[in-house]
Amino acid sequence: MKGQKYAAAKAAEIRLVKRLPEYWRVTVDHPPINIFVPEMLPQVGEIITAIGTDEQVKVVVFDSAVEGFFLIHLDFLANLDDFAHLSPGPTGLHPWPEMLARLSRAPVVSIALIRGRATGMGSELALACDMRFASREKAILSQFEVGTGLVPGGGPMARLSRLMGRGRALEVILSADDIPGDLAERYGYVNRSLPDVDLDGFVDTLATRIAFFDKQTIMDVKRLVDVASLPPDIEVQSGWDACVASMARPATQQRIKALIEQGFSKPGDAEDRLGDFVGRHDTKSGD
Amino acid sequence: MKGQKYAAAKAAEIRLVKRLPEYWRVTVDHPPINIFVPEMLPQVGEIITAIGTDEQVKVVVFDSAVEGFFLIHLDFLANLDDFAHLSPGPTGLHPWPEMLARLSRAPVVSIALIRGRATGMGSELALACDMRFASREKAILSQFEVGTGLVPGGGPMARLSRLMGRGRALEVILSADDIPGDLAERYGYVNRSLPDVDLDGFVDTLATRIAFFDKQTIMDVKRLVDVASLPPDIEVQSGWDACVASMARPATQQRIKALIEQGFSKPGDAEDRLGDFVGRHDTKSGD
Amino acid sequence: MKGQKYAAAKAAEIRLVKRLPEYWRVTVDHPPINIFVPEMLPQVGEIITAIGTDEQVKVVVFDSAVEGFFLIHLDFLANLDDFAHLSPGPTGLHPWPEMLARLSRAPVVSIALIRGRATGMGSELALACDMRFASREKAILSQFEVGTGLVPGGGPMARLSRLMGRGRALEVILSADDIPGDLAERYGYVNRSLPDVDLDGFVDTLATRIAFFDKQTIMDVKRLVDVASLPPDIEVQSGWDACVASMARPATQQRIKALIEQGFSKPGDAEDRLGDFVGRHDTKSGD
């Protein structure tokens, strides 16, 4: 770890702050790179349960306390196998896509405020939110997984194809490359990219505005928009199954191993320029 | 009413002019703010029936004769209850969403030329048209309803989610805020926003062009595009039902009452800056 | 033919070059205007069969060797009737839409590199590809057919409505007009338009990148994106049937005859400015 650039590592924390009873903030605070570690999963699950059941909350904003990173992928130095095979919930979905489905269906408006890198699970969380606003200068979204041989597991095939159409969804997922804020807006990956200096104010104003609207009305609008726009669970489950199958393939294991040797899942160049790294031919196996 | 700024009120009129047998113009002329009054409903219904049954017409342009307003919402000083409970037509839909569905399905190309405010029913009429072109400087679109506690009734949940994807549709409807021309284009709310000086010429050229094409061919293309893009009636009906239910809620009645006290549904600041007004916390009930 | 401007006519050729076993290029080379002649059909069919069955190929780029033209419409001086009534393949689709459906479903990433005019079948081929990148200065896309009285037959009603929403799809098809690169990007007709000088490098870099990714992973991603974004064959077939029916109408035959008299299907002004020509009222029959 480069001492100057990154804050000290500390326990992963997903922090919930109630700015108003109607307006919550959820902040990912796991320096130095906001990597997703398995112990975050129950924290996220509890928060999404609270969002879905609290009677007062109407709007929740997801953001990051870590410079340069919104939320990134699973820590590949953790036990991936354990994570991949967690018991499904009552819907039959693995806990991760199941939490995302619950967030999308919650009777609460969810907004991702994206500054820094949102890749893998970070991109998937943002896509499960109702709206996404990105820093023009500092946001980078991506689904890097195909570059490692993995099929993404948290629903981007289902969600991106509905947001931006087939051509752009295939490009985002199959290029596995970094998508900066303005391109993300042109593609519909985010609602808008805003000058970094304006982003916090814009999102806070929008969230506060919605916090004073009527909860039943918000619920009804979401329910009706979702008829035509939310993917069915079975489609997300099929993507998860393809993800788990891809993880077991030797070619994928080799690619991941080569990437880890170059610094993947650790602070440094590989994560700062992940799009470049997964596109380097020397990280590929001999296929 | 501010005498200088607004023309004198007069009887509501939806004016039909046949520029050619194949090319009609429908102009909303209800100064000073083109508010939708219940007596307009049969006028609109008759025109849409004519559009759907005339053998020669191929293209119809909807515009406004009133400076600053394309067409806005229902007059909330009228009897809303009567309007909400009009008898449904043969499709089971309330007359308003039913007219919009007929317009979309008519074997005729419908184009909204949007200059000034298009909110509520004005936005819904534009969304039911086949194409929308907006003045870059003077068009403002919105679905303001959620700011009053209402669920919009004329289909924007169904139509906007298909035009711009889930994230932007939820933002437009749940923010209840003004969307100027250029943002409307970036979001896909309109086909394009054009410099105001070019708008009339552009739309007239396009309409004239289409007026000389083959009617059967136009019908077939519309029918085939609609397979994947037009919402089913049942989805629009479900939105209408949610609208009527929301109207009856005491919280909505209180919000509407507070807004009317500030000038809602009358010429003046509240309608000129409706997005701001519905977002003011002092118009909210104590929920 | 204007000798200076156009290269000499030669036999139609669709050229397949394997840059790598994993990365193929397919180049349309039928000067002077890359018009689609019926003898190209089996050539395209064979190449798409090879793309769908080769075990190594992962990405294929379609481009043109002819200045000013990517690929345009069927040669209307050929026997249209014969072409329209070719025997359907095992899916029940006419060979042309059937090839396009196979291309979209192939376990290979297809990319259209569009420089020059892509209209009619050229636009349809581009739309059947997984991604489209266009020259900002030199690409022009269109579905000109409605200007001749024809319903387009290769699926644009089904594909454009899913890519860009109902309003813009109806405009593109019913205006029958030229869509330059930047507008094509704003509408989602292409993934991006790029400065002409950057286009080849961008596409080559992207294709090379994907060529080193895992084929099974690519296949799985495509399959999952397609669930929500690829039109069913029956919808494309319905469009084809409408196309064949429109071809038989006397009004269409008259429009085509008038256009041919003005130079349609031959090198020259009519093809260089096809959008203008199909919009001229003097090419219309007396309807």
Automatic annotation (TrEMBL), chains A, B, C:
Family annotation (PANTHER family): EG:BACN32G11.4 PROTEIN, ENOYL-COA HYDRATASE
Native organism taxonomy: Bacteria, Bacillati, Chloroflexota, Ktedonobacteria, Ktedonobacterales
Ranges where the record places region Disordered: 266-287
A Pfam family the protein falls into: ECH_1
UniProt feature, compositional bias: Basic and acidic residues: 268-287
Record-given protein name: Enoyl-CoA hydratase
